[in-house]
């Protein structure tokens, strides 16, 4: 056995050399790895002959085995290879991996998997894959990277990364060491994908230069052993956090500073949000992240700016009013931001009295611009977080805006105007904030048009986040109030990182050129994030600048340097490793359809602001047409009629259609401009998992939930109903259906819904008794009610924001928005899924 | 005005605490002073003077070392030195009380950053001119200014560099000397040869002269 394998090795080597001379260098590796797998799977006797034949096939260019082929597939190959070449080719086609199985979309209707679509696994050896970064944190649109730019151009798919770098993780190794080992040349952090040449030297996997292993690194604190640098936690974990030494600090770590800027104009008092805000802050004041240095401050504004002196030792808070909004100044600079621990009682006093303070105000104007300038002045010495609550269009002083929306044009199929900001005031201020490590989070609670396109810039460039509660009212809209409450709780208590920067590095030859998300690009690849929060997602686009000829794998590394709320400087490093391939079929096999959709959505948002919405819509349709056409022309060997796609891209046309019908990009349906802009901001800012729900909501039938296949989490049984297609044909009058659209969940009750469901879950005797505007499920002590509530609770727990629940009947106002999410159906202004497929097919075969 | 305060461990220059607060009007180049302060802390060792003041342009660094911890503050040159040291003394007492035992064991920079709260409070009482008068009356006898060494920040930071400059100059000098020595030797030999040649020529001429004249 020993001799035969040695002999075999030399055989393969010889053949490889010959293959290499023919310019098929990339392919020759595969027989080798296959052979190794085969030894593991099927023993050794008689291996010699079949493998030799199998190798012979390679130059004939008929076999193109994937690296993941299992042992059984290989045995098949061997048997087939004894047949005539044409037959062999046919049967080889059938052995293609699941991802490349040809699907005719026009024939196969039911494509949705029963459960949410998982991320594809890159074709790496098991050792590497075991170490690789989680797809929830770091994901690529193509899990197999093409070798050259021309190959990528041929595949016509976007190449990019989607990141969720500060995600709350249940397990995160933290390393404290005086020296952090990094590549001397490209500054890459040491990671699991570097190679150790020997005990003393390691080779960087991004720039391929050789570095020394520092003495300190030889000792492994986990196993307390010496001389095993490859067993250090840094080399065993693709996601790791370092405690940074003082070289990583330009100044001492800043304290956690929170400044709240509140609109108290008549309009704001009407909505009644102040009560909810003050109560939430009072409830969570001791769980604000921070240490004994934490500082807070408050500014309120209408047509004037009000400051609050909360200096320790005062008997009650002092209000200071500045009416000169043209040239704003701070009345007492050092007692407006106070230490939370020392002035806690004063802060609590203020929060209790604030809602009553402005109860009778008649001031209708809003000088938001000046308030922001004042807040910036207050925060600029330290940096921190500014939370702005705004309820109307700012109409006084600097940064005043005009209403730009024409309600009659909302439904026009023509181009949508005013997606770009009206003034650069907010962007400029945001950049000033960014340079002083101040992030601005915007809470917009308004029934009227507020020009989110302009206001949103303040958060976008300062790495803040935007929350939007359309038609918020404390009495008329209890669902929004609940959402606001829950969002605030999460917002106030979630983890936060201050004065952060993020850099994404990739293997030499690849280059990153466009970034999506909320941040400011300080130098070519350094993202400045005054604050970073666990709910922020980022996306980048990449191109291949140099051919990746002699590489098996490439790596990407995202490093996020931030100051924790406890004043520790930390670096969180994520490293992703992906294989390089040189054939189109492999590229298609590795396509990640959700990531592609997410990246296309970001690109389309940019396009609709810089060019026009119709341009962006065309670009999305063309993206689907181009990639499917490329697949048809270059990968498919057998031409059949129909719309043929690889199985991994079978949802691509559906997602593109969903994007075209998404609030952000739809035309012909009445959409408020602010709603549209907010949807665009969300698409760019939300991590992929949440953005996907906004694009393609999940539909479940919930009147017949059973415990079959249920999950069991913390001794709670969570039923797992099947995902249904978004088509009215899936609804039935006898049932109840739950649609999960990210920030909102609809529960639609059919007219003839089972009385069992009505009584056991909703607690009403019959359909007519279901109240309008129901947003809470009653807590009934029945198995059905428990199951339904457990399922909804589980859906809510999975995301950081709080989706409000609306229970709707046929007569409800919200029925229209429920039906608008039925993506596969035809509407007056948009194609049905089948029509869209026919359109694609027509374009492709043209 | 006290612009910057820093507490560091003398043994390895690890920063332990600092005050971040900058004033609105002092948009001056604090970043530069910040890094100077850091360098300074790294240069300290057991031989460093217990108290000293270093001039850096129109600013002064005041330095106090006690119990293996260095307390450093950056003040305007006009700020009374007596006050500055009273302030540092105050910090050192409180700091040692709070964290004294843990000082040698910590490894993370700014481990005691929460001390900042105290620093700010003390700073306020020293900077406030009304409070200052009362304080200074208490502290008059506290400080003996003569004990405090005064130097220039540039000098301290560049002391090492000056030495190395001298070193290179010296080695240059010795190189030159060697070269000179060689040249001199060479010249010597040449002049000796020249002398011999002259004598030889004279001698040959003499022989020719004797031979042709007398014969």
UniProtKB/TrEMBL annotation, chain A:
InterPro entries, A to Z: ADF-H/Gelsolin-like_dom_sf, Beta-sandwich_Sec23_24, Gelsolin-like_dom, Gelsolin-like_dom_sf, Sec23/24_helical_dom, Sec23/24_helical_dom_sf, Sec23/24_trunk_dom, SEC23_SEC24_subfamily
Superkingdom per UniProt? Eukaryota
Q: Which locations, inside or outside the cell, does it occupy?
A: Cytoplasm, Cytosol; Cytoplasmic vesicle, COPII-coated vesicle membrane; Endoplasmic reticulum membrane
Tell me which residues make up the Gelsolin-like domain.
Answer: 719-792
Query: Predominant location of this chain?
Result: cytoplasm
Bilayer topology term = Peripheral membrane protein
Domain Zinc finger Sec23/Sec24-type, which positions? Answer: 180-216
* Gene Ontology CC annotations of this record: COPII vesicle coat; cytosol; endoplasmic reticulum exit site; endoplasmic reticulum membrane
Show the GO MF annotations.
SNARE binding; zinc ion binding
Q: Keyword Zinc: yes or no?
A: yes
Look up the coiled coil feature and give its residue ranges. Answer: none
Q: Which parts of the sequence belong to the Sec23/Sec24 helical domain?
A: 592-692
Please report the stretch or stretches of sequence annotated as the Sec23/Sec24 trunk domain.
253-492
Q: Which UniProt keywords apply?
A: Cytoplasm, Cytoplasmic vesicle, Endoplasmic reticulum, ER-Golgi transport, Membrane, Metal-binding, Protein transport, Signal, Transport, Zinc
Q: Name one GO biological process term.
A: COPII-coated vesicle cargo loading
By its UniProt entry, which Gene3D superfamilies does this protein fall under? beta-sandwich domain of Sec23/24, Sec23/Sec24 helical domain, Severin, von Willebrand factor, type A domain, Zn-finger domain of Sec23/24
- Record domain Sec23/Sec24 beta-sandwich: where: 497-581
Q: Which residues form the signal peptide?
A: 1-22
Q: Could you say which protein family the record assigns here?
A: Belongs to the SEC23/SEC24 family. SEC24 subfamily.
- Name the record gives this protein: SEC24 homolog A, COPII coat complex component
Organism placement in taxonomy? Eukaryota, Metazoa, Chordata, Craniata, Vertebrata
Which gene specifies this protein's sequence?
SEC24A
From TrEMBL, chain B:
A single BP term in Gene Ontology = retrograde vesicle-mediated transport, Golgi to endoplasmic reticulum
Stretches assigned to the Longin domain = 6-119
Q: Is this entry keyworded Endoplasmic reticulum? A: yes
Identify the GO cellular component terms for this protein. Answer: endoplasmic reticulum membrane; Golgi apparatus; melanosome
In what way does this protein cross or attach to the membrane? Single-pass type IV membrane protein
Q: Which residues form the V-SNARE coiled-coil homology domain?
A: 134-194
UniProt xrefs under InterPro entries: Longin-like_dom_sf, Longin_dom, Sec22, V_SNARE_CC
Q: Under what name is this protein listed? A: Longin domain-containing protein
Which species is this UniProt entry from? Astatotilapia calliptera (Eastern happy)
């Amino acid at each position: 056995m020993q001799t035969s394998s040695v002999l075999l090795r030399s055989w393969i080597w010889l053949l490889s050399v010959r293959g290499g001379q023919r310019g098929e260098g990339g392919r020759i590796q595969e027989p080798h790895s296959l052979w190794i797998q085969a030894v593991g799977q099927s023993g050794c006797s008689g291996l010699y002959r079949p493998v030799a034949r199998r190798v012979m096939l390679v130059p004939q260019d008929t076999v193109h085995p994937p690296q993941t082929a299992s042992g059984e597939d290989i045995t098949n190959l061997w048997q087939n290879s004894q047949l005539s070449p044409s037959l062999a080719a046919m049967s080889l086609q059938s052995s293609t991996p699941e991802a490349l199985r040809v699907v005719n979309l026009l024939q196969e209707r039911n494509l949705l998997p029963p459960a949410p679509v998982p991320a594809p696994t890159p074709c790496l050896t098991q050792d590497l894959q075991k170490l690789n970064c989680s797809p929830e944190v770091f994901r690529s649109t193509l899990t197999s990277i093409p070798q050259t730019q021309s190959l990528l151009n041929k595949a016509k798919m976007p190449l990019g990364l989607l990141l969720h770098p500060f995600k709350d993780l249940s397990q995160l190794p933290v390393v404290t060491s005086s020296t952090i080992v990094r590549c001397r040349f490209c500054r890459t952090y040491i990671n699991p994908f570097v190679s150790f040449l020997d005990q003393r030297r390691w080779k960087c996997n991004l720039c391929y230069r050789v570095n020394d292993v520092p003495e300190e690194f030889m000792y492994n604190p986990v196993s307390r052993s010496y001389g095993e640098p490859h067993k250090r936690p840094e080399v065993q974990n693709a996601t790791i956090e370092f405690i940074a030494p003082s070289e990583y600090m330009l100044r001492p770590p800043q304290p956690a500073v929170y400044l709240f800027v509140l609109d108290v104009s008549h309009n704001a008092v009407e909505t009644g949000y102040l009560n909810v805000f003050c109560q939430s802050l009072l409830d969570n004041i001791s769980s604000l992240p921070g240490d004994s240095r934490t500082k807070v401050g408050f500014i309120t504004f209408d047509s004037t700016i009000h400051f609050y002196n909360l200096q320790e030792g005062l008997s009650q808070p002092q209000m200071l009013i500045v009416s000169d909004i043209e040239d704003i100044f701070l009345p007492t600079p050092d007692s407006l931001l106070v230490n939370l621990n020392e002035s806690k009682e004063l802060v609590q006093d203020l929060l209790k009295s604030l809602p009553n303070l402005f109860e009778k105000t008649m001031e209708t104007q809003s000088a938001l611009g000046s308030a922001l300038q004042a807040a910036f002045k207050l925060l600029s010495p330290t940096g921190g977080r500014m939370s702005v609550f705004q309820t109307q269009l700012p109409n006084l002083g600097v940064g005043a805006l005009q209403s730009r929306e024409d309600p009659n044009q909302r439904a026009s199929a023509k181009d949508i105007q005013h997606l770009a900001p009206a003034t650069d005031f907010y962007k400029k201020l945001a950049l000033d904030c960014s340079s002083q490590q101040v992030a601005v989070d915007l809470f917009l609670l308004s029934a009227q048009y507020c020009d989110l396109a302009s206001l949103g810039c303040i958060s976008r460039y300062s790495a803040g986040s935007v929350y939007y509660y359309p038609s918020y009212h404390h009495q008329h809209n209890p669902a929004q109030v609940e959402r606001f409450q829950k969002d605030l709780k999460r917002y106030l208590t979630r983890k936060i990182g201050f004065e952060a920067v993020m850099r994404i590095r990739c293997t030499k030859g690849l280059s990153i050129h466009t970034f999506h998300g909320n941040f400011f690009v300080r130098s070519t690849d350094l993202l400045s994030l005054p604050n970073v929060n666990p709910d922020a997602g980022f996306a980048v686009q990449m191109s291949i600048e140099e051919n990746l000829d002699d590489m098996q794998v490439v790596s990407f590394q995202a490093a996020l340097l931030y100051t924790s709320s406890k004043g520790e400087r930390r670096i969180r490093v994520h490293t992703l490793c992906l294989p390089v391939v040189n054939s189109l079929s492999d590229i298609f096999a590795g396509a990640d359809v959700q990531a592609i959709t997410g990246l296309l959505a970001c690109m389309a948002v940019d396009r609709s602001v810089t060019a026009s919405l119709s341009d962006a819509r065309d670009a999305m349709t063309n993206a689907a047409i181009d990639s499917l056409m490329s697949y048809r022309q270059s990968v498919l060997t057998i031409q059949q009629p129909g719309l043929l796609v690889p199985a991994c891209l079978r949802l691509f046309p559906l997602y593109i259609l969903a994007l075209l019908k998404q609030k952000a990009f739809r035309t012909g349906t009445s959409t408020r401009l602010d709603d549209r802009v907010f949807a665009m901001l969300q698409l760019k800012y939300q991590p992929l998992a949440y953005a996907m729900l906004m694009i393609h909501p999940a539909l479940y039938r919930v009147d017949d939930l059973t415990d079959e296949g249920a999950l069991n989490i913390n001794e709670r049984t969570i039923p797992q109903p099947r995902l249904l297609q978004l088509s009215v044909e899936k609804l039935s009058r006898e049932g109840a259906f739950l649609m999960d659209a990210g920030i909102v969940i609809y529960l639609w009750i059919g007219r003839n819904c089972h009385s069992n469901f009505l009584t056991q879950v909703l607690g009403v005797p019959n359909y007519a008794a279901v109240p309008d505007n129901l947003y809470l499920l009653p807590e009934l002590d029945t198995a059905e009610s428990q199951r339904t509530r457990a399922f909804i609770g589980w859906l809510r727990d999975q995301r950081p924001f709080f989706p409000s629940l609306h229970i709707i009947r046929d007569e409800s106002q919200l029925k229209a928005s429920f039906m608008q999410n039925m993506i596969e159906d035809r509407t007056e202004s948009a194609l049905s899924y089948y029509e869209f497929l026919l359109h694609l097919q027509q374009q492709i075969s043209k | 005005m006290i612009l910057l305060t820093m507490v560091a461990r003398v043994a390895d220059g690890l920063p332990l605490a600092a005050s971040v607060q900058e004033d609105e009007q002092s948009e001056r180049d604090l970043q530069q002073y910040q890094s100077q302060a850091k360098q300074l802390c790294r240069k300290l060792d057991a031989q460093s003077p217990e108290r000293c003041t270093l001039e850096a342009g129109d600013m002064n660094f005041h330095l106090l070392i006690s119990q293996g911890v260095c307390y450093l503050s950056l003040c305007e040159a006009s700020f009374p030195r007596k006050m500055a040291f009273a302030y540092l003394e105050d910090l050192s007492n409180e700091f040692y009380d709070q964290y004294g035992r843990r000082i040698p064991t910590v490894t993370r920079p700014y481990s005691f950053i929460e001390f900042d709260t105290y620093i700010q409070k003390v700073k306020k009482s020293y900077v406030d001119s009304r409070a200052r008068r009362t304080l200074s009356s208490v502290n008059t006898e506290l400080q003996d200014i003569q004990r405090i060494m005064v130097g220039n920040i540039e000098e301290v930071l560049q002391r090492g560099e000056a030495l190395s400059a001298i070193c290179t100059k010296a080695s240059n000098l010795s190189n030159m000397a060697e070269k000179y020595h060689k040249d001199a030797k060479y010249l010597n030999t040449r002049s000796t040869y020249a002398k011999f040649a002259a004598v030889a020529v004279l001698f040959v001429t003499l022989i020719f002269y004797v031979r042709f004249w007398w014969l």
